[in-house]
């Protein structure tokens, strides 16, 4: 059987194309995020995967739980997913949609772990440097990880910059053991 991300990709692209055409990227992102969150609930997940329920009943139940958060086109999208027995893919569809949205907006979410809290000025400098290097708008989220000993680890999508003391010690240990 195909992986869920492979199955979700065409639906995410279709939703993205509709959102771009309607100029409602943020609304669709929020709506898909809500649908994904609701579908991850244990009871809702069981309901959506119940083969004895018709696709219409599954879609109706999900839409009822989400209330006014889902637009008319969003409701059509949910019904299409239900007809194709793909409601369980909503979390993957939402994630792929957000990736397409970020690429469209030329932005990237960056996770930065540091050994110690950084001042706002240093965070701004790092953000500007990353923005220049990645050639995108940077949404920087910083966390403190005392296990790093010193330095910083930056994750931007598939790119990882490990400039931590722990990372350097690991590299040194690898080179000494080989």
UniProtKB/TrEMBL annotation:
Family matches, as PROSITE patterns: ATPASE_DELTA
Pfam family, one: OSCP
Chief place of localization: membrane
Keyword Transport applies: yes
GO CC term, one of those recorded: proton-transporting ATP synthase complex
Localization per record: Cell membrane; Membrane
Membrane topology per record: Peripheral membrane protein
Keywords, in A-Z order: ATP synthesis, Cell membrane, CF(1), Hydrogen ion transport, Ion transport, Membrane, Transport
Source domain of life: Bacteria
Molecular-function annotations in GO: proton-transporting ATP synthase activity, rotational mechanism
Stated family: Belongs to the ATPase delta chain family.
Record function comment: This protein is part of the stalk that links CF(0) to CF(1). It either transmits conformational changes from CF(0) to CF(1) or is implicated in proton conduction. F(1)F(0) ATP synthase produces ATP from ADP in the presence of a proton or sodium gradient. F-type ATPases consist of two structural domains, F(1) containing the extramembraneous catalytic core and F(0) containing the membrane proton channel, linked together by a central stalk and a peripheral stalk. During catalysis, ATP synthesis in the catalytic domain of F(1) is coupled via a rotary mechanism of the central stalk subunits to proton translocation.
Name the record gives this protein: ATP synthase subunit delta
Organism: Pseudohongiella nitratireducens
């Amino acid at each position: 059987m195909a992986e869920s991300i492979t199955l979700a990709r065409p639906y995410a692209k279709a939703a993205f194309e509709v959102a771009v055409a309607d100029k409602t990227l943020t609304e669709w992102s929020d709506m898909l995020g809500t649908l994904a969150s609701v579908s991850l609930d244990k009871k809702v997940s069981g309901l959506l995967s119940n083969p004895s329920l018709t696709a219409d009943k599954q879609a109706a139940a999900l839409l009822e739980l989400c209330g006014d958060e889902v637009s008319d086109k969003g409701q059509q999208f949910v019904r299409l997913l239900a007809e194709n027995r793909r409601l369980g893919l909503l979390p993957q569809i939402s994630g792929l949609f957000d990736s397409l949205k970020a690429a469209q907006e030329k932005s990237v979410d960056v996770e930065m772990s540091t050994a110690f809290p950084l001042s706002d000025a240093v965070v701004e400098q790092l953000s500007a440097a990353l923005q220049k290097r990645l050639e995108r708008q940077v949404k920087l989220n910083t966390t403190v990880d005392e296990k790093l000993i010193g330095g910083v680890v930056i994750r931007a999508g598939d790119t990882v910059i490990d400039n931590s003391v722990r990372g350097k010690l690991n590299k040194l240990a690898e080179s000494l053991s080989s």
